Amino acid sequence: MDNKLGSGIKDWEAKRQIMIARFRADYGHFPNDPGFKELIEEFMQKSRLFRESWPMHDVQVVTDCHKRWYDPRIGEMEFEHVTLQPPTHPDLKIMIYTASADTALRLGSLVSNQEC
User: Fold this and answer.
1) How far apart are CA 77 and CA 68, in angstroms?
2) Domain boundary among 13, 34, 60
3) Is the pTM of this model over 0.85?
4) CA 26/CA 22 separation, integer angstroms
5) How many Cβ atoms are within 10 Å of 53's Cβ, its own excluded?
6) Are 2 and 50 within one domain?
7) Which of 26, 47, 81, 87 lies 20 to 30 Å from 64, alpha-carbon distance?
């Protein structure tokens, strides 16, 4: 499970801890949900990274941030990320990724080349 995880993400070590802390924050809304418990058990069995991070009990709620990914075909991509979550419905999230102008051009070029 861990082998390819994070291969295109800069600062993977820090990012994985943030992702697990966000997962824990979501879990906090539904601590008795059997689906969450099944996921946690599966991650504990299959992922060394998860086993190392989960016992830290970190919690993080983020609504926006700057994201960077690397794709070998077009290089580094940058996005502004916003998460919208109604306070009355913590189980609903809308995640919006807005590409930087340069990233949008390179993604457009990639899509155009694949249509041929």
Assistant:
1) 6
2) 60
3) no
4) 6
5) 21
6) yes
7) 47
Q: How many CB atoms lie within 10 A of CB 12?
A: 14
What is the per-residue pLDDT across 55-80, written as a single tens digit (0 to 9) for each?
A: 888 776 666 778 888 889 999 999 99
Domain ranges, residue 95: 62-116
CA atoms within 13 A on the CB side of 116: 4
Are 109 and 68 in the same domain?
Answer: yes
By CB atoms closer than 10 A (0-12, 13-18, 19+), residue 103 is buried
Q: Which two tokens stand for residue 86?
A: 């109604």
Indicate if 52 and 77 belong to the same structural domain.
no
Residues 68, 54 within the same domain: no
